[in-house]
């Protein structure tokens, strides 16, 4: 990085330490943070980084200082798509910028022994020889991502988080980072805040170490993400408590239903107060500070896109299903055929006793298999849409027209859809049902604005991401949701709390 950069980094560290010496009257430590404005190119880079390094895990996973009242970690807001802050590792502390990620559980940073990865040379690297509290571990590990891997070995050292020193924390020194994600990323590493059940190598997450070393008074940490594009503060992460200035009213708590990620049971998604049907009987959800947008079943996202006028690709398979089988679907639903078996009776799917799968007879050739999968998926979505319209006593013509329109609103392959910025004020409110309460998102909250050549581009905060059973269907509530709702992660009671952000 060069001596000049290291000198500047040292100055920043000294300044940070000086600021941390002064606590406010309520015992909370506050540091002002800078935010960066959005632009299209940076959004694309950030989107690639987030999708590859975070969303992939839901498919491939199943892989003494005295007590402090609370501890605040300042967060930078990178393009409203990733929030990161500074930590220190070693004695004296070596600074690293990390994403605080509730969707993973390991802490990793580049190693000085990383010689053959460009990403390592573009970021700060941990030098064990310069730390007098370093302890050798040496156990090797690999974490697989969407388009590459990180590999390295475990070490132990003191980790400075805010003004708390977590002793002998087990973390990963990466020696290989093969994904372009880590080259373009504005962060050095990741600090996972998930449960130990998904930690590679059995390394305890940082909050578990804080608890065991009695560094915090309460077994919680909380996020406040500032979504105001004109504000300098990016947000705060508070260990050991909550800052009452960052939320309104009281928190609504839901129990964690599956340890690993912060997973809980969620109800329906409402568009303008109306059910979208697919999760009417309940869906699983995960709160993930490492995911930028709201990711959910394509069936629902298509309905959202239709309601807000988002433009995606036209799915010929979907429109063909509606055209050829729409009336038959209506008749079967009116005859009270189980919705899960409708596509089986039509012949587009095979029902395996729990859910529909593509017809294996049409899957002998790989190309045919891909087509069969698409028709099965399109049929299942059409059943949900048509069933919703039947509940509202719509005519056959209106129902088929509505389903055909939804086909046109299916998200593009990379998951995102654009909207007309001038129509935001006319868009409906959207609401998640959690613990029998509705958590509303206004259009201003679920639309992300980008700047490109002086022009504003608006992106829907909803992206399609289908998790197959039995793990799914699943919602991933990322930064768009956490920006609207202050979130408490209570690992003492294994519960999650939501309150309106202030």
From TrEMBL:
Gene3D superfamilies on file: Acid Proteases (2.40.70.10), Saposin-like (1.10.225.10)
PROSITE patterns: ASP_PROTEASE, PEPTIDASE_A1, PROKAR_LIPOPROTEIN, SAP_B
SMART domains: SapB (SM00741)
InterPro entries per UniProt: Aspartic_peptidase_A1 (IPR001461), Aspartic_peptidase_AS (IPR001969), PEPTIDASE_A1 (IPR033121), Peptidase_aspartic_dom_sf (IPR021109), Phytepsin (IPR033869), SapB_1 (IPR007856), SapB_2 (IPR008138), Saposin-like (IPR011001)
Leader peptide range in chain numbering: 1-23
Keywords from the UniProt entry: Aspartyl protease, Disulfide bond, Glycoprotein, Hydrolase, Protease, Signal, Vacuole, Zymogen
Cystine crosslinks: 114-120, 421-458
Peptidase A1 domain sequence ranges: 83-499
Gene Ontology biological process terms in this record: proteolysis
Subcellular location: Vacuole
Domain Saposin B-type, chain residue ranges per copy: 313-353, 372-413
Superkingdom of the organism of origin: Eukaryota
GO CC annotations on file: vacuole
Main location: other
Single GO term (MF): aspartic-type endopeptidase activity
Record function comment: Involved in the breakdown of propeptides of storage proteins in protein-storage vacuoles.
Similarity field: Belongs to the peptidase A1 family.
PANTHER family for this protein: BETA-SITE APP-CLEAVING ENZYME, ISOFORM A-RELATED, OS01G0290000 PROTEIN
UniProt name for this protein: Aspartic proteinase
